[in-house]
Amino acid sequence: MPEGLRVGYFPGCTLKTDARDFESSALAVARVLGIEVAELSRWNCCGTVYSLDAVNLMPRLASVHNLIRAEEEGFSEIMTLCSMCYNTLKQTNNLFTSKNNGRAAINDFLCLKPGYSGRVKIYHFLEFLREKIRPEQVKSLVVSPLAGVAVAPYYGCLLLRPKEIAIDDPEKPEILTPILSALGAKVIDFPFNNECCGAYQTAVHQEAVARRAYRIISSAQSEGADMIAVSCPLCHYNLSALQGLVRSTHPGLKAMPIVYFTELMARAMGLDYRTEIGVIPQDVAAAEARLRPSPNDPGREALK
Amino acid sequence: MTRLGVFICHCGKNIARTVNIEALREKAATLPHVVLAKDYLYLCSKPGQTMIADDIREHRLDKVLIAACSPRLHGKTFAQTAQRAGLNPYLLDMANIREHCSWVHIDGAEGTEKAFSIIKGGLGRLLYAEPLEPFQSPVTKRVLVIGGGVAGIQATLDIANSGYEVYLVEKSPSLGGHMAQLGETFPTLDCSSCILTPKMVEVSQNEHVHLLSYSEVTRIEGNIGQFQVTVRLRPRYVDETLCTGCGDCVPTCPVVVSNEFDQGLGARKAVYLPFPQAVPAVYTIDWDACLNTDKLIICENCYKDCEAKAINFLMEPQEKMVEVGAVVLATGYELMPVARIGEYGGDEYEDVIDGLQFERMLSASGPTGGVVRRPSDGRIPQNVVFVQCAGSRDPEHGIPYCSKVCCMYTAKHALLYKHAVPDGQVYVFYIDIRAAGKGHEEFVQKVMSEERILYLRGKVSKIFKSGAKLVVWGADTLSGRQVEIEADLVVLAMAVIPSSGSQKLARTLHIASDLSGFFSEAHPKLRPLESNTDGIFLAGAAQFAKDITDTVSQATGAAGKALSLLANDFIKLEPTISEVEEGICRGCGLCVSICPFGAVKMLPSTRTGAMVAGINPILCKGCGLCTAGCLSGAVTLKGSSFKQIFAQLEEMV
Amino acid sequence: MKIILGNSHPQSLFAQRIEALSRQKLFACYQCGKCSSGCPMAESMDLLPNRVIREAQLNNGPVIMSCRAVWFCSSCFACAVRCPKGIDIARIMEAVRTLQMLDGKPITEQPFCEDTGTLPQIALISHFRKFNM
Amino acid sequence: MPPVKRKLFNLDQYQVPRGKVQIISERCKGCSLCLEYCPNKVLAWSTDYNFKGYRYPVLEETEEKYCISCRFCEEVCPDFAIYVTTEPELTAKPQSTQRK
User: D14-90 adopts what CATH topology?
Assistant: First the structure.
């Protein structure tokens, strides 16, 4: 187990509420992998969605505040779990590392001297795992392999686009494959794994988002997936909570469990991570139903 | 006492706009040795040249400086003017006050000052210039053609039929190139192999042609008129002189692999003829596929079955030296691999194929016998989507240029598919239709209207598999709608890129290629058939993507260029090459290792017998590396001596 | 609707403003339509993304200022990563949204979905960000 | 050449020779040359022993692994313990082979 693997952690709003299972499972997994995850002592909203307005720098200030705090607390690397936080912080950080006059303007506005350096490296947990942890390490910790479970990793947009911040090939992402394989799962590649779920349109255009959810879920199903693994609380919500709405137009849609990839890791490693506020309990239940042991499969037995 | 003349060109407004010509002329007239300073609107014009020639005679000028454009543009023009006036052309020099000065300056005062210092430098250099005489070099009356596609074949035949010897070097086992793979050609629907194979046979039967197939050029030395070429003949493990082409070796060969000629859609044995009409009609053993290795002969089935005893497992690569006077480069193109486009499946989907693969299916001699089938299940596809500009016109991910032939061959593909499967549906995604050749627009229009083919104006964003079908996401920008098509087969008109060995060849031949990897022509308008190395000519898609018509035209043109060179017994070569002063050379040999052209050799001195450097004037290109490298200062580059260069620098600063 | 070109004043105000706000080269677009082909929200849009750019090139203010498509863009950047000319279309969408807001037009006529209470914070926060708050 | 691992359209038009390996087990001294050099790896060790006390080669053919009648085993066997008969009616449907 690697010594002294320490990383700053920026949780973001949803990880402390609706996505607490994501956080607790990730923290549990990090602990057994020997990663010291140190939450920033103060943090605020990441500032999502990254503003695309080239002129108005205001919407970036929330992100900058977090980056400054990370630097002040002595973190050279910070990690997020939420894809949106990753995307927003990383794009903001790029303002400071690329040749861009935004850097001076922001530092001036915040009366910062010498100003934020741009030197904090922003990781998504997946990227962190790929760079610092070998799949064999994950495999060695698995006590209940997900044998026979077909998991479709879903990446969505924010980890893959725009290309300056992509953690993987935007057209053929496979960063989750080695992890899920190490857990013993069958990894399902499906063409919608990099398609947008509709993101925040869920607040106003739920029908449109439900159409997206239907196509994504049905594509994964037709490729034989038992469940979809996600890395973003918003994707999780859109793909799971909108299944009811999807069924109003596509009554035949079979229930598809949506789980965070860290939940699968924690389960396979036999870690107890469940929080009191279980998110979308019906979904977890459905996922567990999928994992119900068959008489002749000891791997499944252990997953109970 | 030297009598210098300075002539300053206005170049219309090109120079005069930022350089005060009048002031410049007045200042130049005061410089030492200058007996005449004149200006003129266009010195390169006939009256301008006449004026210079008259002045040289009238004022008995010894040396002349032309302050005008780059010598790359008009160096030759004014050298001829000097010659006409009886002045050694190397005593006339040019000071570039256009590209180096007026074009890059906005401020008039600055421009004029800089122009003056350029003229001063030029005069300083000219002061030490010495008359030089071009030397004659004999022309070897043979031509090397590299590449055995239709361009190389055409150039070879044109030259050979004029009575000159041609060495034709082809990398693959057979002549024919991509044209041999095609089914029918646009816009006339001529059968491609029917019109090509007679030419291939003609090449093999022409007594002036030496066909070196399965071979590569590995080294080239020399200069225009005298190139020494090294060709590496790969062992085909079948003796070309003995093989009768009977094919008895094939049935018992136990190894089956995919055939490159069928673009990976068809099979062949390890011992093979790429296609039945191959020239030369001799078999080749693919040593990578054969069970035998250099150390171990495991299988002798073909050897045993060959009655002509042509099989020789011990064959080794051979090197052949060839001396030629000119080279025609016709190395052709290939298609960008589908793997480069991730959103189109990146070569993961069997039923997403490229244009050449579709050609092989359409070809009667292809792996499907001319029937269009899905590679995945062999069924005849009912919905076929063609995607144009796959990789082309995409500076972000692919290549920035238009591949030029895709609009036409896609229309042809659509037509031929409809002829084969009348009830099938065809959809063509395009951005613009570029059908600018003779009969091309009419062809596309005819295909659209008579075959009732739906052309959709939009670029496809994503292709993915859904069950046995392929889903194509496109748009029809004309109606402003997204389009989704469930297709059985998708044909990508992949970008045309230079053939894979062309960069290596460019380095071997010391010629330039452009950003996309195509060989650079000497001038885009006026010398499109010549490389920037004299005596090396370009033909076909090696220079840029082009169709068969243009390729054949260019090949004939390149052959004409080569022939006009061969019409001379001798050519004049520039005397601006290096020269060793034997008395100073201490024989260290550093220059031998520096010279990139192998022009320097250590030879015994004619006077003392000690080993000193000697320059081969044919090989020397006058680059000056040896002069800069020589520790004793024994090497001089004629026309750019140290005296001249230092004088120029001193005058300028 | 006929577009009168040549005497509009100022000549290309909208195009210039969109270019300034997005820092994208509007006239690099050759209208291949690849952005529209792969847009996940295009089904809900009144104008396809390539058409938004086209109208901007045409300096067609009224169409741009009343276009609702930009509010369906969820900034997934599928267009930007695939654009052959390297144009970040999502930024152009944002610029048009900003222009509409600056113009004081009712920003969005759609109400929030009924059960906002169950939405995760991130959905609300990121949605608000569209208004550049 | 495109790297797709496609099925080859005209594969069924090709045939490769198929041999029948004959092993005289009692002559074998287990030198393993035939196993080592068989290009299609159709030979395996026996589980029992011949009367000299050696394991000897046995045939282990599958759909993809079959004797291609190269007869190299015949050549390398120092004890004349193995030979191949080629039967004209025995031809195999070829698999497209990986390159070495």
Answer: Alpha-Beta Plaits (3.30.70)
